[in-house]
Write a structure and sequence with these properties.
alpha+beta; five-stranded mixed sheet; 5 strands
Length: 129
């Protein structure tokens, strides 16, 4: 693989975002699994299938460093802000699919982080360097 040139990473990010669309990322590090992340993954996978939702990709990731509020999931839906949910149990997983994914309502009681327009969301934008 050739070395990346200036601007290649920014270009890659833009292309990757186009491909990824809507996705749910579940923290499946040791702490996430110990807290029930594997059960949450199965529930989300089943709920997406049961509701015929084919345009949302479900992914696993390692530890997010937020062990105090595992299981953690990140929900990225087109047209909505990215949301990090914590302390997600089976009941909450069902609620996130029915409310956030289907009805486009954020489940505020379990939000750990959600970028705003002035912070977070613009961190990775190309600064023209």
């Amino acid at each position: 693989m050739d070395k990346m040139k200036k601007g290649d990473l920014s270009k890659f990010r833009k292309e990757y975002k186009k491909l990824s669309g809507s996705e749910i990322v579940i923290s499946m590090g040791t702490c996430g699994i110990a807290a029930g992340g594997d059960r949450v993954y199965k529930i989300i996978e089943k709920d997406l299938n049961d509701n015929g939702i084919k345009n949302v990709i479900i992914k696993k990731t390692g530890c997010l460093g937020l062990c105090f509020c595992e299981p953690n999931i990140i929900v990225r839906m087109e047209g909505m802000p990215e949301v990090l949910y914590g302390n997600v149990d089976e009941k909450t997983a069902h609620m996130i699919i029915s409310e956030h994914v289907i009805k486009k309502n954020i489940v505020n009681n379990y939000v750990i982080f959600m970028p705003t327009n002035d912070i977070g969301k613009n961190i990775f934008k190309d600064q023209g360097r």
